[in-house]
Write a structure and sequence with these properties.
The complex is a heterodimer of chains A (596) and B (165).
Chain A (H helix, E strand, L loop, with lengths): L5 E6 L2 H5 L2 H14 L6 E6 L11 E4 L3 E3 L7 H10 L9 E2 L6 E2 L6 H4 L17 H6 L4 H9 L2 H11 L11 H10 L6 E6 L8 H8 L1 H15 L3 E6 L4 H16 L4 E4 L4 E9 L9 H8 L23 E5 H13 L1 H5 L9 E8 L5 E6 L4 H8 L9 E6 L5 E4 L9 H6 L8 E6 L4 H15 L5 H18 L7 H15 L3 H5 L2 H20 L13 E3 L8 H5 L5 E2 L7 E2 L9 H5 L5 E3 L1
Parallel strand pairs in A: 1-2, 7-8, 7-11, 8-10, 12-16
Antiparallel strand pairs in A: 1-3, 3-4, 5-6, 9-10, 12-13, 14-15, 14-16, 17-20, 18-19
Helix pairs in contact in A: 6-10, 6-13, 7-8, 7-10, 9-10, 9-11, 10-13, 17-18, 17-21, 18-19, 19-21
Chain B lengths: L1 H7 L10 H9 L7 H12 L4 H11 L3 H10 L11 E6 L2 H5 L2 H12 L12 E6 L11 E3 L2 E3 L7 H6 L3
Parallel strand pairs in B: 1-2
Antiparallel strand pairs in B: 1-3, 3-4
Helix pairs in contact in B: 1-3, 2-3, 3-4
Classes of the chains: A alpha/beta (596), B alpha+beta (165).
């Protein structure tokens, strides 16, 4: 038998591929062949580790040495030193941002230490394009258990007991949803997986699909058995080509082994899965809009009831869950409801994957038990704020969520606590902001997004978000009026109460929560015509400080030609004519041009 | 997708002969809800959905043209006008926004001398914005066709564009 003495795991997720992991892999393969090591050292292409910031990531087992930002030119040294002589290449190790100490081992990294990676357990450790890797890690055992030893009622009961709640945003109890669909009468039922991850700033579903697609397929098949469906659809965003590719491979492999298709495990149960590619519409994340889209129509939501559990896809009972929800199913079946329910808080069970982005040292995916504090997520796992800046707020739940100021950093993160403070779990996007982020601009950003994604069916959302956006644009352009804040609040309340679907009902949340915690910033924009964070360009200008040495670079760069000054003398900007593009500040070698 | 687009955009005769399209229509004829995948495949062949293509689909699938226009204009993926050989999609998502994605878009507009939503006169590039491409860890990011480029600075833009000339 061939003896493999080391495995080199190279991340082939979207992040690392963009950072050059494919070229790295080719170079490594070539080097191994050259050195004659290719028979004893195996390269494994894995899915996402969730630590995209430091990509391309390489882990070498059995030691578990974790190398970051590995480039093609590092390959000869890596092979010669680590794989040949067994010496760790110190300079490629990750250095903790605070202590600057290098961390040799994967498990000792601050980013991973406080995490509890269950749903993401396989991501980054198995090859997502080989079904055997998933099976070797206990994959499809849950499906076997369900089909050979459990009744459909027992499966639904197990999920109910586990206390799993929908991970897509709403937090509705999954077991109850399954029960409704199971009890609905109908000769034909469907399972639908919502993989239309549209929240800007959230990418956990993408990583699960790219890194461990079989987990989702298994979860969906278990659901099919529980509710009595023999057909399922995965509705995936068209913007996720790699996820679609890996799912297509995974479905074909599962069919080949008889884990999908007719008479699975000789149980008489049939289940077929199809992929439906989205066509670019955020509102399709709403379940009734998603169903309309699968049916080939404009993806517009409709009033509920009837809920999809009673009348869904083509009028048949349909159970829709999000990717992360389905990915939780196999472990609940394998380990039992009691095991799962012991993790998390009283009303929010299990773990949640958060996407940490924005002004934070470790951007990436973090899976943590429910009930952990925001401070632990941002500072212990996320490594705090870069460049010596201070934490200002964190936006949770994307365009439907709200922001939390630093006073709420010790809030336990679960569905209900977040709603109480005006935010929501949403899909789990966490965008961290420091003092250079303007909260009015941020609210405008989210509203511009929901406004352009509003499907236009109901008036409150179509017209209301438009009016709110106009007011916010006015404020950030320096034309805010007294009374604008009150008008925003009134519109927000009306839209929340009267919009047809989740998109409209939650669209005002970013405005309401920034008003709740950063009202003063709105007032400064309106009353003093000033943007304290220096973001809103109409309310800020550029100044040349006395650090200027008169090199003249800014003068050459300025597209409006409004900078004057003699060579070696201090330059000045004509504030009247300045278009505030910031090009001069970007070019200045001494950083002598500042906003303000 | 884009390579296919480039190779196949002239593969069918636009004046009445729709062999490839007809093949696809036959493939999907018995499937429920096939309109969106058919439009996606048609766009892969022709690069965009022309009036002729939409008429043909309507006729073959027995769907009113008005309904097809309704669907095609609802989703951001579909285009009714010809586009460039390379599609640049600049992410304007939250993570990119707080990491100055605006300056990236401006650098692209300056370099290509077009605004977002437009195509260069030589049809080499179409510049679009996208709400999020889910590569937030590398913000700010953009996609050219299916390649993702991350950790961008305005200075990096000319080099990236040069790779697709």
């Amino acid at each position: 038998m061939q003896y493999i003495r080391a495995h080199v795991l190279i991340c082939a997720g979207t992040g690392c591929t963009a950072s050059g992991s494919k070229k790295l892999e080719a170079a490594l393969h070539e080097e191994l062949v050259k050195k004659g090591l290719d028979k004893e050292i195996k390269i494994v292409e894995t899915g996402c580790h969730g630590f995209c910031e430091a990509g391309p990531l390489v882990i070498i087992y059995p030691e578990g040495t974790f190398y970051v930002r590995v480039k093609e030119e590092d390959v000869p040294e890596l092979v010669e030193s680590h794989l040949y002589k067994g010496r760790v290449v110190e300079r490629l190790l990750y250095k903790e941002p605070v202590t600057h100490e290098s961390v040799p081992n994967y498990n000792e990294l601050g980013f991973y230490k406080k995490q509890r990676r269950m749903v993401l357990g396989n991501c980054g450790h198995i090859n997502p394009e080989i079904i055997g890797d998933y099976i070797a890690n206990g994959g499809y055992e849950a499906l076997a258990k369900v089909l050979t030893s459990m009744s459909s009622g027992a499966v639904v009961n197990e999920i109910k007991q586990a206390g799993l709640r929908g991970r897509g945003g709403g937090g509705f109890p999954t077991g109850m949803k399954w029960e409704f669909t199971q009890k609905a009468t109908g000769d034909k039922k469907y399972v639908v997986c919502n993989a239309d991850e549209g929240d800007p700033g959230a990418f956990m579903d993408r990583s699960i699909l790219e890194g461990d697609p079989h987990r989702v397929i298994e979860g969906m098949t278990v659901c099919g058995y529980a509710i009595g469906a023999d057909e399922g659809y995965l509705y995936v965003r068209a913007e996720y080509p790699l996820a679609i590719k890996r799912l297509t491979i995974a479905i074909a492999q599962a069919e080949e082994l008889g884990l999908l298709g007719e008479n699975i495990f000789n149980s008489g149960f049939n289940f077929h899965l199809k992929i439906k590619e989205g066509a670019g519409a955020f509102v399709c994340g709403e379940e009734t809009a998603l169903l309309a889209s699968i049916e080939g129509k404009r993806g517009m939501p409709r009033p509920r009831p009837p809920f999809p559990a009673i009348s869904g896809l083509w009028g048949k009972p349909t159970n829709i869950n999000n990717v992360e929800t389905f990915a939780n199913i196999p472990q609940i079946i394998n380990n039992g409801a009691a095991w799962y329910a012991a993790i998390g808080t009283e009303k929010s069970k299990g773990t949640k994957v958060f996407a940490l982005t924005g002004r934070i040292n470790h951007t990436g995916l973090a899976e943590v038990p429910m009930g952990i504090t925001m401070r632990e997520i941002i500072f212990d796992i996320g490594g705090g704020i870069p460049d010596g800046k201070n934490f200002k707020a964190v936006q949770i739940g994307g365009p439907s969520g709200g922001c939390l100021p630093k006073e709420l950093l010790d809030l336990p993160v679960d569905y209900d606590s977040l709603v109480q403070v005006g935010a929501m779990m949403g899909s789990g996007g966490l965008v961290v902001m420091d003092e250079t982020t303007c909260m009015v601009d941020l609210a405008k950003f989210f509203l511009a997004f929901t406004q352009s994604e509003s499907c236009g069916k109901c008036t409150p959302c179509r017209e209301g978000t438009m009016r709110m956006l106009e007011i916010l644009t006015r404020i950030t352009d320096g034309e805010g009026k007294v009374g604008d804040i009150e008008l925003l609040e009134e519109l927000a309340r009306n839209i929340k109460n009267t919009a047809l679907c989740g998109l409209g009902q939650t669209a005002p949340n970013p405005v309401l929560s920034t008003l709740r915690y950063f009202r003063q910033e709105y007032e400064t924009h309106i009353n003093e015509k000033r943007c304290p964070a220096g973001v809103c360009s109409a309310l800020t200008g550029y100044k040349i400080t006395d650090k200027c040495i008169g090199c003249g670079l800014c003068k050459k760069t300025c597209p409006a030609e409004v900078i004057s000054g003699e060579l070696k003398g201090r330059h000045t900007i004509d504030q009247e004519k300045c278009i505030k593009c910031g090009d001069c500040a970007a070019k200045c070698p001494l950083k002598a041009i500042i906003k303000g | 997708m884009s390579n296919e687009q480039a190779n196949n955009c002239c593969g069918d005769n636009a004046h009445g002969q729709f062999q490839k399209l007809d093949q696809i229509l036959t493939e999907y004829q018995d499937q429920k809800g096939a309109l969106i995948p058919v439009l996606q495949e048609a766009q892969n062949i022709y690069g965009y959905l022309s009036k002729e293509v939409i008429d043909r689909i309507g006729k073959k699938m027995a769907i009113p043209t008005s309904q097809i226009y309704g669907v095609a204009t609802f989703y951001s993926q579909f285009h009714l006008k010809a586009r460039g050989r390379n599609i640049i999609r600049v992410c304007q998502g939250t993570a990119c926004h707080v990491r100055d994605a605006k300056t990236i878009l401006r650098a692209l507009e300056d370099n290509l001398k077009i605004s977002a939503g437009e195509t260069t006169t030589d049809r080499k590039f179409t510049l679009e914005t996208v709400a999020c491409i889910g590569a937030c860890g590398l913000a700010p990011v953009l996609m050219v066709n299916d390649d993702t480029h991350g950790r961008l600075t305005p200075e990096a833009i000319p080099d990236i564009l040069a790779r697709y000339l």
